[in-house]
Write a structure and sequence with these properties.
By secondary structure, the chain is α/β, with parallel strands linked by helices. The chain has one domain. Helices cover 25% and strands 37% of the residues. The strands form two sheets. Strands 3, 4, 5, 6, 7, 8, 9 and 10 form an eight-stranded mixed sheet that branches. The protein has a three-stranded antiparallel sheet with strand order 1-2-11.
């Protein structure tokens, strides 16, 4: 469902806001996996796992991420080994990248873990999408990886839902749009009048 608001003019340019209902986490990832399949990348049933360019990318979503859980996973020297079920047996694959996708803002201690390990930052990404559920158009990310899948995920958020991403370091200074009524939580989608946006899938 799409609801179009009135145009808003700012700085001589015209914005047109398209409010699309932002999905729940599992629905969001399922829709992104569908886009990945359309690109020719491999996805797996019952696994939030994507294979692209001979690399495996794991997406993890949790409603509330505790620091102990996060450290137990990412600081384990076997963090990149993941078992995939194939029929009645399992096969272990080596992950190249991992992304945590959160509907709640992570704690400062989780962000500090990234600062303490440059190796971690090159392999693990973090997305805070909590503001999307409050009808704000800018969310936070920690992504210093070279993952093609995660770049596609960020483009997917922008194209499908109008969500822009900023580094966590700017989280205290970014501007916010007014909060819309909570009946059917929506997010504003911004399109420049003179630019024609293209769907990625």
């Amino acid at each position: 469902m799409e609801i179009w608001s009135n145009n808003i003019e700012e700085g001589g340019r015209v914005f047109l806001f398209n409010r699309s209902i932002f999905p729940k986490m599992w629905e969001l990832i399922d829709k992104f996996k569908e886009c990945c399949r359309l690109k020719g990348w491999s996805t797996f049933d019952n696994e939030d796992l994507i294979k692209a360019e001979n690399e495996y990318h794991r997406l993890i979503w949790v409603n509330h991420l505790h620091i102990n859980t996060f450290k137990r996973v990412v600081l384990n020297h076997l963090w990149n080994l993941h078992a995939i079920r194939e029929g009645v047996s399992y096969r272990t694959v080596r992950l190249s990248y991992m992304a945590w996708i959160l509907p709640e803002t992570p704690s400062e201690s989780i962000l500090q873990t990234f600062e303490e390990s440059q190796t971690l930052s090159r392999k693990v990404a973090l997305y805070d999408l909590s503001r999307a559920y409050e009808a704000h158009y800018t969310c936070m990310r920690k992504n210093e990886t070279e993952s093609a899948v995660l770049r596609e995920f960020e483009q997917f958020l922008n194209t499908e839902y109008g969500i822009g991403l900023e580094p966590f370091s700017k989280s205290r200074t970014i501007s916010r749009l007014p909060v819309f009524p909570r009946q059917g939580i929506t997010t504003p989608k911004i399109e420049w009048k003179e630019v024609v946006s293209e769907k990625i899938c």
